[in-house]
């Protein structure tokens, strides 16, 4: 097989330097070129070699040597990562930031009202956690009969509950008294009922504590306690369910 003339173009990595080659026979080197592909900045160097009158005996190895910095291997992945990161941040800022010069007063009031109701929900969650602490203290007292520790636990729970209830009442008062909020009537009704149901649940737990003390002191029989406790559990479950329903509606 005879080839009259062949031109070989070898594309090297971008930023390759000190390019040289070793041919087993004389070849003609043409002007080097640059080719740009995806994510290239300056382009990839192209080594151009040509040779005329080739036969089968010319099929031999051609060695190309060049220098290439190892950090260049991660240059393009870093460029792609940086591009998408900047793109995502730009979209996030464009969506979330408010570029209007004057903020709508009604929107601001709705946001403030939403913050206050969210704070009330958080306080109610903490009060619900105290209910469980109260019941745990009652159960420990019935089994361990440590009256001193029981009183200490109950006093701590009661103090924390009063503090949380006071904060909730202050927030409800702030919503009710500020005409700028203009809260819907059903919201105020739900907040008022939330306070009533919480007060009811606190009274039920106090009654349960008194019954436990009477049982431990042998002032009532175990059957009397069980009968009263069954009614107490039903009322407590109703109050808890109603509180959860009210919180979901805020």
From TrEMBL:
Pathway: Protein modification; protein glycosylation
Transmembrane segments: 78-99
InterPro entries: REX1-B, Ribophorin_I
A cellular component annotation (GO) from this entry: oligosaccharyltransferase complex
GO biological process: protein N-linked glycosylation via asparagine
A Pfam family of this chain: Ribophorin_I
Topology of the protein relative to the lipid bilayer: Single-pass type I membrane protein
Keywords of this entry: Endoplasmic reticulum, Membrane, Signal, Transmembrane, Transmembrane helix
Key word Transmembrane helix present: yes
Protein purpose: Subunit of the oligosaccharyl transferase (OST) complex that catalyzes the initial transfer of a defined glycan (Glc(3)Man(9)GlcNAc(2) in eukaryotes) from the lipid carrier dolichol-pyrophosphate to an asparagine residue within an Asn-X-Ser/Thr consensus motif in nascent polypeptide chains, the first step in protein N-glycosylation. N-glycosylation occurs cotranslationally and the complex associates with the Sec61 complex at the channel-forming translocon complex that mediates protein translocation across the endoplasmic reticulum (ER). All subunits are required for a maximal enzyme activity.
Protein name per UniProt: Dolichyl-diphosphooligosaccharide--protein glycosyltransferase subunit 1
Lineage of source species: Eukaryota, Metazoa, Spiralia, Lophotrochozoa, Platyhelminthes
